[in-house]
Amino acid sequence: MKPIGHKLDPSAERLEWDLTELSSFRDPDRSGWTREVFSDPYRQSRQWMADRMRAAGLEVHVDPAGNIIGRRAGKQPGAPAVVTGSHTDTVDGGGRFDGVVGVLGALEAVRQLTELDVQLNRDLLVVDFLGEESNDFGLSCLGSRALAGELTAADLQRTDRTGTTLGESFSGFGIDPSAAVGVDWARRTPLHSYLELHIEQGPTLEQRQLPLGIVTGIAGIERLLATFIGSADHAGTRPMGDRQDAMVAAAEAVLAIRREGCGAPNHGVATTTRVEAASHSPNVVPGLVRMMSEVRSVDAKWLSGTRRRLGQEIQATASSYGVDVDLAWSTDNELVQANEEVQEIAASSAASLDLPWTAIPSGATHDAVHMASLAPMGMIFIPSHNGKSHCPEEWTDYADIAVGVRALAASLINLDQHAFQT
């Protein structure tokens, strides 16, 4: 008799219906499928998601951090639970698949277990984490960060561009900010393991014509807010050689950051995402410019040196233009390795289904980063067309999603029976 995994047959049509329905919750005034954290479309989509969880037979509740949790009871009450899921918020102008595949794919895996009458020993938790994407508060993975005890009272005082604090946004969304900081159920109740299905958001799987990637680690992220302080002047009368142009110094920094990423010996990237002059007048030499950038890598040694290398170069170049610069660095998340046993279970589950795979690092961050502090963590990637993500063109074929769900479901069954080495 073939193992139960060979009977798994996720429905691409059902997945397409769910994805199409969820994508209808979007900001009509923004491009793509915009559903940012704390927005009205996000609020509406969460009720839809809770209803879909219940329709799949899950017992649903929202925890104090705003995470939507669906529970499928196992045969052993009180045993540490297996957890899967992802997020359903998007970036501004984002696509339909990032994060969403992990939540709706988990629901389809639950349906498969139910249709095949598979009862796990442990509870299976499907989580739609609150606000995974980066936001104006400069803090990603709000829900999973809170679960891991990494959301702080100081974080609640972070402000967006309107001066609204993160705590005020929690309150306006119906979440008690002090309860979000204090949520501890995932730390009080041991979890068995965490496995997340996600689109790759890069080109590797498509280029290699492979259906699955088993994630080895998730890149660390260092973020930089640089403020360049020069001297504002009339753009028509101040001689070129007598300027303290903050924009020129910022432009040089943008190129320095790009060179840093291009020079990484292993997987490393560096990106400037925003450069803004304080003055919006077209005839003023910029005297104050703010720049937002980030550096990511799965190479811990290289990443740890970026602050020093970039700091020295940016300071020296700005000084040569007579511009002062203040560099404010923050660590969005540390480099996190996937658990080797979870990797092996996901890989062997894929192999048992005759699904080829490759080991692959993740340059994007995920809720899995924070869940790794609570349980052995792993991720499964599926292909992204042209490696596109965080844009309206983001696309993954529904048939590819169904393959990913098949691997996810088989892995969850095997994880349920696994005793981790201590």
Task: Report a brief summary of the structure.
This protein is of the alpha/beta class.
The N- and C-terminal alpha carbons lie at a distance of 33 Å
Report mean pLDDT, rounded to a whole number: 96
Uncertain residue ranges: none
Question: Can you tell me the number of structural domains?
Answer: 2
| Strand count | 15
**Rg value:** 23 Å
Q: Can you tell me the CATH architecture of the largest domain?
A: 3-Layer(aba) Sandwich
The CATH class designation of the largest domain is Alpha Beta
Strand content: 15-25%
Percentage of residues assigned to helices: 25-40%
How would a crystallographer describe the biggest sheet?
Answer: 9 strands, mixed
At the fourth CATH level, what is the homologous superfamily of the largest domain? Zn peptidases
> What is the element string, with H for helices and E for strands?
HHEEEHEHHHHEHEEEHEEEHHEEHEHEH
Which structural class matches the secondary elements? alpha/beta
CATH topology of the largest domain: Aminopeptidase
Shape: elongated
Helix segment tally: 14
What can you see in these coordinates?
This protein has 422 residues and is α/β, with parallel strands linked by helices. 34% of the residues lie in helices and 23% in strands. Strands 1, 2, 3, 4, 5, 6, 13, 14 and 15 form a 9-stranded mixed beta sheet that branches. Strands 9-11-7-12 form a 4-stranded antiparallel beta sheet. β1 (59-62) and β2 form a beta hairpin. α1 (12-23) packs antiparallel against α3 (100-115) and α12 (340-352) crosses α14.
